[in-house]
Structures are given as C-alpha cells and as structure tokens.
Amino acid sequence: MLDINGTVRYMEMNGKEVAAKGILGVVTGVLLYASGWVGNVWWCLLILMAIDYVTGVTGAAINKCLDSEVGWKGIVRKIGIIILTAICMLVDYLIATLSAGAGFVFPLQGMVTIVVCCWLIGNELLSILENLGLMGVPLPGFLKSLFAKFKDVAETAAGEKDKPGE
After folding, report:
1. For 141-147, which contacts have Cβ atoms below 8 Å and span 24 or more sequence positions?
2. In this structure, what DSSP letter does residue 10 have?
3. Residues facing 8 on adjacent strands
4. What whole-number distance in Å separates Cα of residue 113 and Cα of residue 94?
5. SS3 assignment, position 124
6. Cα end-to-end distance, the chain, whole Å
7. pTM above threshold 0.70
8. How far apart are CA 55 and CA 49, in angstroms?
9. FRET partner for 92 with CA separation of 20 to 30 A, picked from 25, 63, 69, 102?
C-alpha cells in the first residue's frame, strides 16, 4: 500500500482480520467443492448454521445479554463445523478413490459426510429451538423430539447407538 508520499507501507491486520480472510478462503473453497457433490444435505446444514447464529444473537439481544466473546466463540464453532465437514468430504473422496483403485466401486459414496451432516443438523435444529424459546416464540412440544431424531438416526447409521432391545 502506498501512502501520500509514495512510500510503500504494509497494511497491518489484527488477528481477527487475518482469521476472517483465512476463513473466507476456506469457506469459498469448501463451497465450490461441496456444491457439486454432497450438495443438498451440506447446504441445509450451512443454512441452519446461519439461522442458528442469527436466532442466537437475536435471543441474546432480546434478553439483554449480548456478549461479543460469546458471539466470537459461536463463529469459531461454526468454522469448526465447516472444517469438520470438509474433512469428512476428503475422507469420502479417499474412500471412493482407494476403492476404485482396488478395482471395485464403494456403493455408499459420500456416506461419512452425509451421516456427520445429519448429526450436526440435529444439533443445529435443537439449538434453533432453544434460541426461538429465548425469543419468546411458542413452540410445539413434539418438535424437540422430532429434531432429536436427526441425531439418533445419524448415530444409528454410524453404529454409535444400539438399537432398542439390544
């Protein structure tokens, strides 16, 4: 960057600016990769993450307990979720590539990402319900158990949860 005298000056960025630029790069790359592959489930997760963040901030504002530290931690958590799903996509890619290299087609391509995304969707849905409750929105009682089923189905699919009676 040049100042008014034509001297080259380097723009100093604080840690948050550097993190924001890095995050933007990672998010853009992941978006470009995921949009053509595990698309629908992943996009639903991203939309729910945004809704969760907005409803969380709104609930905190309504209850007069906004806290920038909590907000920053929420953003970092969402970034962590995006990184986790990107890693799952890479694992799915490796499974597909290695199985094709071994001479067979793995029949469940993308399943690691889909199962993890479904589990995360369950978390986001439950968090959105909590946030809406903080906002004073009346909620039907059955929604919490319905949204919790997303996590249960994902855990069962991943073999983490035993079936009833076992």
Report:
1. 147/122
2. P
3. 2
4. 12
5. helix
6. 66
7. no
8. 10
9. 25
| Confidence check: pLDDT of 55 > 70 | yes
For residue 2, what is the DSSP state? Answer: B
Number of H helices, E strands in the chain: 5, 0
- The neighbouring-strand residues paired with 2 are 8
Please name which of 56, 33, 53 lies closest in space to residue 43, comparing C-alpha atoms: 33
Q: Which residues contact 67 (CB under 8 A, 6 or more apart)?
A: 60
| Residue linked to tokens 């890095």 | 22
Q: What distance in Å separates the CA atoms of residue 149 and residue 130, rounded to the nearest whole number?
A: 16
Q: In percent, how much of the chain has pLDDT > 70?
A: 67
Query: Model confidence over 67-117: pLDDT tens digits?
Result: 888 889 999 999 999 999 999 988 988 888 888 788 887 666 777 888 888
Q: Which amino acid, residue 134?
A: L
What is the separation of C-alpha 11 from the centre of its chain, rounded to a whole number of angstroms? 32
> If we measure between CA atoms, which residue out of 129, 123, 162 comes closest to residue 143?
129
pLDDT of residue 17: 62
Instruction: Give the residue-averaged pLDDT of 10-29.
Output: 57
Residue type, 73: K
